[in-house]
Design a protein that fits this description.
The complex is a heterodimer of chains A (143) and B (482).
Chain A lengths: L1 H27 L20 H19 L6 E3 L2 E2 L3 E2 L3 H4 L2 H9 L10 H8 L6 H12 L4
Parallel strand pairs in A: 1-3
Antiparallel strand pairs in A: 1-2
Helix pairs in contact in A: 2-6, 4-6
Chain B lengths: L4 H6 L19 H10 L4 H24 L11 H23 L4 H4 L4 H29 L1 H4 L9 H21 L8 H26 L6 H31 L2 E9 L3 E8 L12 E6 L8 E5 L10 E6 L16 E8 L12 E7 L3 H13 L6 E7 L8 H10 L2 E7 L9 E2 L4 H7 L7 E6 L2 H13 L7 E4 L5
Parallel strand pairs in B: 7-8, 7-11, 8-9, 9-10, 11-12
Antiparallel strand pairs in B: 1-2, 1-6, 2-5, 3-4, 3-6
The chains are: A mainly alpha (143), B alpha/beta (482).
Chain lengths: 143, 482
Amino acid sequence: MRERWARLLALLTGAAVLLLAVGFALVQNRTRPSPAMAEPPPVVVANGVRVANEVQAAVAGRSVFDEQRCARCHSIAGQGNPRSPLDGVGSRLSREEIRQWIVADDAIKDDLSPRALSAKQTYAALPAAQIDALVDYLQGLRE
Amino acid sequence: MRNSPVARAQFSTRPISSRRSRPDTILPNRRLAARSAVRRGPAIKPIASASLWLAVYLALIVAPVLVLLLEPTPHGGGFWWDFALVLGYAALAMMGLQFWLTARFKRATAPFGIDIIYYFHRYLATIACLLLLLHASLQLALYPDAVGGIDPRAAPGYMTMGWIALLVFAVLIASSLWRKRLGIEYDRWRRWHGMLAVTGVVLGLLHVEGSGSYLTSPLKRWLWGALALSWIGLIVWVRVLRPWRLRQQPYRVVDVRQEPGRSWTLSLQPEHPPAFDYRPGQFAWVSLRASPFALREHPFSISSSPTRPGPLQFTIKALGDFTATVGQIGIGEIAYVDGPYGIFGIDAHPHATGFVFVAGGVGIAPIVSMLRALADRGDRRPLWLFYGNRRWDRVVFREDLDALRTQLDLRLVHVLSEPPEGWPGEHGFIDLAVMQRHLPTESTGLHFLVCGPDPMIRLVERNLEALGVPLRQLHSEIFDLA
């Protein structure tokens, strides 16, 4: 008989933990709706060399994003860590601000958690061309 | 044939010479008397104590998760992201809690019985492992870019540690649930079990520390660090401090008596008396030919009674790898005893109008302890003992039970599955029909105490339920802990 109680209590504990996780997730996300999954960034349709250069820069920037595994902490169009989505970052921040956030510049340092800070400081050592390409790519992410 | 006098004489087990009178001395055990007086108080006391410990248990599971909600909290990552992550934290806390469950804290385990705590430990660990699996699969399926794949060459170290932790836990659970089927020897299993458990939890903690999604403030990191330290601290307690304390109180083997049916009764005397107080029906973990640090201890029922002076006795049947060697133990050898544990026994039910004992094989050990205590206390309540064995020549305590019958209002029913020619008694298993033949139709107030192999316990419990015995009057001791 006591085995049945033990099994029941263990099952109830498991159910309680699941409920706790549901409650926690709801509380965590009460202020902001979850970011839309899998919505591709708008494709810029235009003509001319300038656009071609921009597209080229964006492609280069995206490969930096992938190489540096930015998706571990950031998501774009629902791909990657949804905690800090970068969708529309080009509309919210200027080029210079984006650069500051990438390399954990002193100007924004206080807004970063120690863990994020230590992760980002290594990016300051990247070649300038790569950072520029990344900034170009992120600038292109418009609302 | 059943009642033929010839057959009765043939199977009489009462040689005059072995008839025992009541022992001259009955231990006036004051501490024990005081303890049972408390137990006799209103029934609310054990319930209150059980509720208190259940609350502590729930707090230990819920609190580590609620701590994560302390400000500053990170941005929400969407319902499934946060759900999957917090599941990982909670399941790790459940795994850490296992160290509390198996640390054998007497006060915390007393209201439930430590045998059931071990059962609970097993169920809870299985569920925690499933939750961890859910955590990992949700993350991998929904956020493959954030997780970064399973390949350790591409993934960050803390993610690899998480995967290894999951694997370790899976091995831990499988090797425990199916230890016998996998043919893993008990002592070896136990050493590995401890090592794997520590490895799994430490890797899990490093995984949390590395990914650390919610541990966003020094306070939160400190609180989770304290939690982790409490788990590690318990390992130190269980593996170092308790064995060290056991070593301070060695026991010496003063007698090894061969019983029928490949069983032995070991008598142990403390080097520095007195031994611990115990209640009839309790058990202890015994280390023989091994230091308490070696973790080669085995749980055995105490067959002696606290009402009698003399050594602590354990009756052990050769059933497993270790028990087969008990007969080789010599007088004068050192033993270490961690006990007493368990709530199986008559003293937990002072209001019972009588007791029905059901024993299978060496499951008789704790019941003999109780019968001896009842006899010494002059208890006149009606008693029944259904005692199942394979063969008559393997019945342990045959003569002792006959002697006890003269001192108690005891109906002794031997049930043999391979009865000899002309056996006048019951044969087969202790089934419904056997019990109905011997028990009174009106059994209100009787408490049933069952001890034996698992299948027997299940069968007897089912039968007693069919007889309408309320579950709260039905008690069993789980033999097989892993």
